[in-house]
């Protein structure tokens, strides 16, 4: 095996609490434990395309453990296999495969290996780099917790806590006003974040992409609660939740004379429907980007530190092209290729769903008998 | 002076952190300090219209100091002088003056006096009651901090803290993504909440209703920051902020085939404009109802306790028909009539505006030279 | 199998965030899902000795999910097999076995089964009850996370977060003053809480009962950091940490003329030693009871809800005398007898220890080379 | 008036949340608003004695608004008029007046003026500098809030919030265990912090230096509560609280064979007394240094920003040798000499004391009738 001397590290995809904690653990483990040089790559794969790198010293990663975000920067739109290099005469974007350029910059920078911290998309890009013979390891990142092969990723628990705090706040206000209150969390395809935050805050209704909802069932549930003297009904809803037979409303745009306006999401649609059908005052709040920011909670700082350390261990023991995972409560690894382009949704027989139902949660499924609470 | 034996207390208007702390202080001061009976009125003036009351004991107000919301409930739409009593044959609402009914219920319940905790609207209703000879005192409540005659109201500082926490979270995410991020806070007419939260979180741009903005100036400021290597620009914007010569976009509704959808607010409009003009990736988050909920911060718990205690002191010393206020850092009182139907906006020469400008904040005023930072 | 109709639930041992969440999940699952009656027993086994019980309705457990503590109360000193029933003529306590009384009260109250939420001690008492033929299930509780057979217990993550928040605060102050700062956390025999909070906050030194420390090594580490320009050294220390060849100082008492004074703990002893040996200004803070209180974080609310639900599932499927556990990330169960009187310490080859060492943490082991950071 | 070109800024005395926010506001106002150069002085007056300074740029103060501590460092023991310069042959410290050295370094560094952020002690040192003809302004800092002439100082509200959060946590645990719980906060001479945190958390007993306590009265109050079915009694106590006719126990040291051990404080003494007299289980927690650390709350960030800006305004308008203050809710200034060596205690007729008594708080004054609650 070729001896490693110099490794690169990058963060790709959407922001996530704990990225800095992983960077710090990668850098400290590599510097202290193995005497490696560490090179920070700016803005994910964009930094490899544009050759923007810098050495990372112990001082650079000092005091970043507690900070949200990533000191390296990140980007969402830098897939080397289809990179926008300009526009043609008609103003249409031109996409090119710049993978060779990425490989060139890696070789030019004398990077013996690469640690890629990111989600689905970043792992796909990393697969390209692996195919060109660069040893890589992946560290999974997604606040949606929907990556295959790992039970949990750092950042998820912080996002759950942020959403739970917001739901707690909404709860007191809903009760004061006798309202139905919808809180929309992230989650386009997977409902993990909504399910956890919903259970944690005692949400009365939880709507997730995996279980299409029936608005009439939800309305009956709300009215049933009002009749039993409950002062409020709290609905936690994933942005990707959809009605039975219908589609999610993410990203719908309404053109207007004045300008193009981004619409609210499913929670706004549902708020209007519920208010009309039930006559109950109903309001919606979309949590949005606050779920991606802020200092990671202690759990995520520990997990991120373990992931970062394990990534370096994999590299230094020659276990290339694997992604760090948590399985059965243990830090292990799987081939990166196993992860790319797949998503881990909530299985309909997941125990958390039974737990939620047992404590009286409504999922908007027709025929669900209104809870006796 | 007639000896007081029995007082009523109600909370009206929008939810606000600290309402329970005021209720507790009113009840404990009245019960312990003056041996009065205390009657809780449900859902603000609605409870007086519908005669829903209950005695409040020391046990009822035990352990409520830390809780958001109001154990008495509140309502926004119960002005006795114009109360919707039904609909006519065409389905149009019928409004009646039910003030006499309110007075009747107060007399029937043997309430010697009333403590009304609320904002502008609640104080107007209280004025009606006063005109019928019922001794009242008011306790000011508004998370917008825009009531006349008082420098501060409870709940405001908690709302500022909640908005500031969200801005802090957004800050780390904006920097990771090199984005312009807008955070929309409450404040239809007054920008106090946005100004305080903006300064507290180091927002780069602060847009408030009192200072109409020029979108080109904002865009130049964003571009100027990017050129100087700043990773992000944070814009704190009141829901009531408006362009020079334009109108606020609060509550605009777009009818659609499917349904009527509530639109996002000014932050969504601005996000689209800024992204188009500058080419910088721009995102908006609307904080919404989370700003009204949750446990009050220590400052508001102390202030609410002082206000509640002072209300009882006013009643018991025969100083009727006054509202508790904070002036010059002292708990004082003013006639309720002085407060009704007026609003306290940020004066354009307010020292906080100079402070914000001095540390480099942009208010979107044309001609503002881009800060050198 | 005998049909269950009525179950009792109790909480025993030290306070722990999430107890109310378990009680709620037990009650709701039993009431809604299985139509059982639920009886709350006051103050742990004391309530069974003294026959203090009350029905638990859905209303009783409404809105308790977010609250710290236990609505049922708890007690530390009510082991039925050795219960203090009075004092003899010399003032010495008389202990009796009152297990029969406990069994009598369970039968008298028509409890078909018992859910016991508690630690080591509570599980031992529950074993006694089981031996008398009462079906029981246990739910593990300990903020020390040192119960056998389960990877994690609710409350632990909240305590870690509380300790981590305190360490974060201490960190900024230590840096301003160039101090060595010790923060003493709970953990008499097991260092889980200290290890997690220490890693999460980036503590420079972590001292746990499982790894006796050498004070000279710690001092060399502190001086080494100062020489390298580090502004502060943070030491997270378990209350049960002890020097090599020495004893823990928990609970030492110094008699004085005035009164008997409880001494500070190991952190105070160490602070004095370190300051004397190194000449560096050193301070200690003992976190104490704040680690047991407060609203559980989202993670613990979800875990506690799962545990409570699973307890009822075990009872209703006739799987008696088992304790709910988390193993390999799954909610399972083990015989209660397997748990009693045993403790789960940190094994010296635990991966978290290697992770901590890899990022530069000192454990006070002689020969440890001062980290190059 | 001599034109200012270059100003120095230092932070002295104990750590305090918001120091960085003041430094940032001073630097940004000076740099952006007035085109001045700003020099940061390390570790308070020690940096002037040892001539350690560095320019502060806009980048240096970027992103420090939210951080606890001070990027400049601070020191407690650097009074130029009595500075320890070494030890004599007997090992006794030698103190010298090094004020001339300070003045020399200020002149050498071409500092036209000095902004000194600190408390009582720092203002005394600043008076020395003023007497040598160096223009200075002071910014008041103390988490005890006991500086003369200003109603509030930054950091105080954050410390109150930290103490209040701890008291909230202790509250749930005390109730679960039916305990008397003491929480000891900072405050050697003034009880502001304890009084505010105590009222904010609904502490049942508040003990402050200004009102010496009678332990029997406290015990009667605890027993009275127990008789009325209250599950817990919470006592907030200042470290400087003392019994009637007795002394405070701060800093008592017990020499031991093994080593000299720092004792716990007044809360430990009281816990033992109360447990012995009442038979109620009683525990104490000393909050300690966590009260000085952490990110400032929004209120303190705004206040610190105002103070920092105002300091520069004073300098630039030639109003030298004044300290920024808050009076009547307004940012004003007073002569520094007015502040030095004086302390602002809680007057016994302060309205907050009446408020606390009205809601049932016991201050341990003999003859106080046990509250009926």
Descriptive labels:
homotetramer; 373 residues; alpha/beta; Rossmann fold; 2 domains; seven-stranded mixed beta sheet; four-stranded parallel beta sheet; 10 helices; elongated
3D architecture notes:
By secondary structure, chain A is α/β, with parallel strands linked by helices. Chain A has 2 domains: 6-155 and 296-338, 3-Layer(aba) Sandwich (Rossmann fold), CATH 3.40.50.450; 162-291 and 348-358, Phosphofructokinase domain (Rossmann fold, 3-Layer(aba) Sandwich), CATH 3.40.50. Chain A contains 10 helices and 15 strands. Chain A has helices spanning 19-34, 45-49, 99-108, 120-131, 156-177, 192-201, 215-227, 266-278, 298-316, 351-358; strands spanning 6-11, 37-41, 53-55, 83-87, 93-96, 113-118, 136-140, 180-185, 205-207, 233-238, 253-255, 260-262, 282-286, 322-327, 330-335. In chain A, the strands form 4 sheets. Chain A has a 7-stranded mixed beta sheet with strand order 3-2-1-6-7-14-15, sandwiched between helices. In chain A, strands 9-10-8-13 form a 4-stranded parallel beta sheet, with helices on both faces. A two-stranded antiparallel ribbon of chain A has the order 4-5. In chain A, a hairpin with a 2-residue loop joins strand 14 and strand 15. In chain A, helix 5 crosses helix 6 and helix 7 (215-227) packs across helix 8. The longest helix of chain A is centred in the middle third of the chain and has 22 residues, at 156-177. The first copy, chain A, is elongated. Chains A and B meet through helix 5, strand 12, helix 8 and strand 13 of A and helix 5, strand 12, helix 8 and strand 13 of B.
